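Quick one, T. Sequence first:
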Amino acid sequence: MGFYRVAAGDTLSRIATGYGRPVQDIAEWNGLPANATVAPGQLLRVAPIKTASAIVVSGLQSGVDRTGSNNGTAMEKASLRPDGFTWPLNGPVLTRFVQGRHGNIEIGGKPGELVKAAAAGRVVYAGTGIHKYGALVIIKHDKNLITAYGHNSILLVKDGDAVAQGQPISEVGVSNAGMPSIQFEMRMNGKPVDPLSYLPAF
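Structure tokens:
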């Protein structure tokens, strides 16, 4: 999968053994000393960065989960209307969607402010596998549509979690430009669409 969420009683050494990796590798991929103490709920990279990044990109392109399944069931039963979304964060739009150039919007906020699911669905990715998105959550809403929430500070959900519309999924972090904000992206059949076409007017 590329990432592991620490359970009670885990140690860095035990996790490394479980994934067949040297403890030094696990420590290096997470910016930790080899003798670091890990805490329950902490998310650790357990695969090389290149592998984890490929997983994230694949998820954004196809909307499938990290095992490659279509993750149908309850999500495929949801038929999302264009007006069926809510804002993940109440803040100004700092950067707008531009077809072919900028595939998302950036919404300003305050550090630590709660980010909420724009619609009900299932978390198919929660991690830090690619620098462009920082701490990232991807939610699959039906067989065609996903939303992605990047540049978070703390993730409040994990892979496989079912989420309700408006449920907190993360906390606002800081963008690569140093602005407290989130990067919000919507993809239909793997292609970026303008979130402002789906979100209600303020």
